[in-house]
Amino acid sequence: MSDHLKRLNAPRSWPIKRKVSIWTTKQRPGSHSVENSIPAAFLLRDMIKICDTAREAKRIVANRDLLVDGKPVRDVKAPVGLMDAVAIPKMDLYFRIVLTDKGKLVAVPISKDEAGWKLCRVEGKTKITGGKIQVNLNDGRNILLEKNAYKSGDVLKIAVPSQEILEVFALDKDAAVLITSGQHAGKTVTVSEYIITEDASANIVRFTDGTETVKRNVFVIGAGSSAIKLPEASE
């Protein structure tokens, strides 16, 4: 697999200048999709802008100065994705990766305390030996529970890196959600109705503004209002 990507072919979610050069860094396969993540080097150089070159980004990573979800990043091509909590403690800089209302990934400045937790969507559950429930989350995490407490589509607020569950936001009426893909990617809306169908992958979520989408495009960000800091609306 190539380590580089033509800028013109970069995902629409990347906030990238497409005609300044031909190539850009491509992230390695990981827990986030290509569309909902960017390489660590791109984050440092092009989004947070704390360095000017890929070589400087490599030095920051080599010094273990970049933390994602509380753990040092070891590879400049590691994917940093939606809802990840980013910290550069030596510079007292903290960010969360979210989407703008134009569907572009952005690093929103947050406080040090906010960088100690993140939101993760429940993608599925598995019953394992011993009767425990393994909850599978959107960023590749798995959490073991004693009982079946959450459903697919719910979002867990977890401490990082400990994975302690702090709060749960259910996919239900009046939930605040971020649309992560599709025609309305980047919009933050309120759920008016959640329709469960025979085909779970086709469950419909309707919103108070009259729009709707399928469940897989929806990420709950709070009960009634957003629990995370969102970027300012684009002009």
List the helices and strands and how they pair.
Elements: E1 4-6, E2 23-25, E3 37-39, H1 40-47, H2 54-62, E4 67-68, E5 71-72, E6 79-81, E7 85-88, E8 93-99, E9 105-109, E10 117-127, E11 133-137, E12 142-145, E13 155-159, E14 165-169, E15 175-179, E16 188-195, E17 204-207, E18 212-214, E19 218-223
Antiparallel strand pairs: 1-2, 3-6, 4-5, 4-7, 7-8, 8-9, 10-11, 10-13, 11-12, 13-14, 15-16, 15-19, 16-17, 17-18
Helix pairs in contact: 1-2
State the low-pLDDT regions, or none: none
Task: Summarize the biggest pleated sheet.
Answer: 5 strands, antiparallel
Number of helices: 2
Oligomer: single chain
Structural class: mainly beta
CATH fold name of the largest domain, please? Structural Genomics Hypothetical 15.5 Kd Protein In mrcA-pckA Intergenic Region, Chain A
Distance between the termini: 38 Å
Order of helices and strands: EEEHHEEEEEEEEEEEEEEEE
Number of domains: 3
What number is the mean pLDDT? 88
CATH superfamily of the largest domain: RNA-binding S4 domain
Give a count of the beta strands, DSSP E runs of length 2 or more: 19
Q: Mind telling me the CATH class of the largest domain? A: Alpha Beta
CATH architecture heading of the largest domain:
Roll
Helix proportion range: under 10%
Radius of gyration from CA coordinates: 18 Å
Shape: globular
Strand sequence of the main sheet, in spatial order? Answer: 5-4-7-8-9
Fraction of residues in β-strands: 35-45%
